Amino acid sequence: MNPLYRIRYNNMNYMHEVENHTAERMGDCIKKKYLRFLDCQANLKIEVVAEEDAEFDVTKYTAYLYNNSDQIVRIYQFDVGVSVKTENLILHYFTSDWGSEFFPHEKQIENEFSFGSLSGRSCKGFEPWAGLVTPEKCYSIALAWSGSWNCTITPDQDSFRFSMGFSYPEFFTDVVPGGQLASASIYVASGESLEDACLQLRRYFRARLSLLNDGGIADVPLEYNGWWPYEDKYITEEVYLENARIAKELGCRYAVMDAGWFGENKDGQGWYEKRGDWAIINQKGFPSGMKALCDNAKKIGILPGIWCEIEAVGKYAQLNHTHGHIIAKRDGRSLGYVCLGSEEGRKWAMSVIDQILGEYGAKWIKLDFNLDPAPGCNAQGHDHGPGDGLYAHYLGYYRLLEEVHRKYPDVVIENCSSGGLRMDIEMMSHTHWTHLSDPDYTEFHLQCFWGALSYLHQSACLHFSWSEVLGDHNLGIRNPITEDMEKYKFDYYIRAVLMGVPGFSYRLPQMPKWCLERLKELCDFYASIYRDFILNGDAYRLTGQPLMGGKGERFPVFQFNSRMGDALVFAFRLNKAKQEQIVYPRGLVEDAIYDVVYLDSQESFTVSGRELQTNGLVFRGMPEESSEVVRINKRQL
């Protein structure tokens, strides 16, 4: 596998594979540098840096352009990639949009094929990930970029040339003499199977990129968020605190106040139109103010969180008039967000976050983004050129997130963008976890969770259990929780999100008493497994991907292994599923003895790792829309 780059600059267009390199060993990393003069006379050179991680089978590739000429070089495309030597390549990828994130596709590559996002958000259109399956090896590849991007695969005799980058129509950036430009990086993991390669990428993300390595936040990330049952229509400080008290009793560590707390109370203006007026408190719903709300949550014993769409500006926001100079514009028209490519925009954004985290004292900030910036800002005076406004915005947003984390290391930074439309690996290296999607009915949650594990660790995947909602986006079911529902169905809803970072969005005071009691038991269970299996464990997808609409795998099973050698297996029988499922656990020690216990049926037996991995683990006798959890404990000698 050789690195390559694609570049389109001035009136030139090249794709070069590079072979000769120098190598430096730096701890667990071997850094290989591949140098090539793009134009000797013009003194333009390209360097591709491949950082091979010795602990994981993952390499990070980044290309750099050095302009040592005396002329400005205009760049239209600058991608980095790899050449895969094989005669046969099957591409796996996901399309993605609101309410349909992580829908899978598979394609035999016979001619040049490309796909990508043009919306200005990395996961709207397609997920910035690709799986390559060849007869020799498999690869899981993630692009570290949050805006628009492209991916191209080109067959070439006995190889396929694969590249990804942030180029898109209307993009260009000028590199001045003596300047340089870095491409977006790609992370390439390899394995004998695609699942093996994805496992390597998950492990690498958790060990090398996750903010969770810095510590500082609550030990167990159980969250209550009252958005869906109240939205901004029915939420008040009394409603928030009443739910927070119950959430505390359930074991939740955080209670997040979503939209609805800010802006004037003018008739006909919802939260969307008022975004940006973060200094104006909704006095009708929150007369005591947000600091008092956070203080009162802490008195209850639960950590407060606050939602904010820091980039966005609603059409009725006063910010349009008071800070018009920082609003992103395209040909003079507002794009509805603050251009963070500008230093003034970043300063304003940080002042808002200082108010939320410093003055109010919130310990969780949910940063949302509900619009498509497309090619982005081309306004003058924003510290970027006319063709690279979106590029500059995301570099500025990364810097803002780094400053927030540096200044408030004990605060959770949640990523959200119309649900899951901006959860690329670069964004996830700047935030603690990401919202997977707005719809959260269990079948769809499992589709998203399975897909996200292609490049993210389970500890980065936040989703609500099947929520109580005011709208119809969860299959038209406003409240899935009822007094007379079966206990197994309640467990099915809740357990599905205990495999990642769970959130709950219900009117807790109206939830049936037995459901609250069961929810507390399941929260206690989560607290007992979080550190070993979710935060620090390995996830294995033992089956194919379940899909919404009654499609895909109908009996999905996920396994989580702890560093101590124990395993936890979650099985979900969806509707239209077969009666019985057999899966083959992974990562066990063949000669070790394991005690196996089904938590619901209480069936138990003792078996060797070799027998369990060879003969499999059987699930049967489960009704549709039910779940089972199996503990596989390794006997200590």
Walk me through what this model shows:
With 637 residues, this protein is of the alpha+beta class. The strands form seven sheets. Strands 3, 4, 5, 6, 8, 9, 11, 12, 13, 17 and 18 form an eleven-stranded antiparallel sheet that branches. It has an eight-stranded parallel beta barrel with strand order 19-20-21-24-25-26-27-28. Strand 3 (21-26) and strand 4 form a beta hairpin. Helix 3 runs parallel beside helix 5 (290-300) and helix 10 (487-495) runs parallel beside helix 11 (513-535). It is globular. The mean pLDDT is 96.
Main sheet specs: 11 strands, antiparallel
Overall geometric form: globular
The percentage of residues in β strands lies in 25-35%
Helix-strand category? alpha+beta
**How would you state the average pLDDT, rounded?**
96
The helix content is 10-25%
The total count of strands amounts to 38
Write out key terms for the chains shown.
637 residues; alpha+beta; eleven-stranded antiparallel beta sheet; eight-stranded parallel beta barrel; 12 helices; 38 strands; 22% helix
